[in-house]
Amino acid sequence: MSNLKVRVDKKLLERTAYVLKCVAHPVRISIIDLLEQREQLTVSQLQEVLRIEQSLLSHHLTNMRDKGIVETRREGKHVFYFLTDTSISNIIDCIKGCKAVR
Amino acid sequence: MSNLKVRVDKKLLERTAYVLKCVAHPVRISIIDLLEQREQLTVSQLQEVLRIEQSLLSHHLTNMRDKGIVETRREGKHVFYFLTDTSISNIIDCIKGCKAVR
DNA sequence: CTAATACATGAACATGTATTCATGTGATGT
DNA sequence: ACATCACATGAATACATGTTCATGTATTAG
Questions:
Q1: Beta pairing partners, B42
Q2: Which CATH number covers residue B79?
Q3: Per the domain annotation, does A71 fall within a domain?
Q4: Residue A10 has pLDDT above 70, yes or no
Q5: What pLDDT does A59 receive?
Q6: What pLDDT score was predicted for residue B96?
Q7: How far apart are the C-alpha atoms of A62 and A82, rounded to whole Å?
Q8: Residues of chain A contacting residue B29, judged by C-beta atoms under 8 Å apart
Q9: Quick check: A54 contacting B, CB < 8 Å?
Q10: Looking at residue A82, what DSSP letter applies?
Q11: Which of A18, A56, A90, A102 is 20 to 30 A from B91, comparing alpha carbons?
């Protein structure tokens, strides 16, 4: 009604939903949480903590990289993953504080 | 590796992902944005701004209510929707500020 | 009581996402 | 060169989600 309207531009809205959808998964939230603690971690290190199949983890990581949430650096046989922007982890703290979650 | 572990309990992790997944949709983000501006809105009012089918909107709203993001109050023929916790909109501001989105 | 308004619901279908399994690729050690 | 380690990829399958359409229910007006 009247002068009410969505204050977010449609393109940004879709991009926001797109990235958020990627965050919205237990394994991927865990990865963000771990990368907030360690700066960078290899796939094997993540695997050891998360205890999931290597292939599944790799798919999740590729997914997160496609969305720009993480980036990679290769060092010999190892590939290190790190957060593109550590402020992504604020989202998790944010939602953990919401009534809907508690 | 050493004493590294996910700092979020498994149950909370799943709940967080579950609620986040619900936020992660352009229409539902828009609804949150509108309800941040107006305190409460009827389905028709939302429909007028969003310009989507009544049925689709209703499904989205039911979805959001199931997840505890919104609540309802009936007043005559109208059903008002309002945010359970306005701090949910912080998430959207949060992610909009992230590199991955811009 | 009947019709209209405002909203909800269920089934069907389309589309998207998660997971597994098998296999591929790049780097290193021998 | 070959084996091994660390990781990536693709196809297949299973599962979840979004959307539409038809229909149902609650409330009010006449």
A1: B80
A2: 1.10.10.10
A3: yes
A4: yes
A5: 98
A6: 86
A7: 12
A8: 8, 13, 16-17, 20
A9: no
A10: E
A11: A56
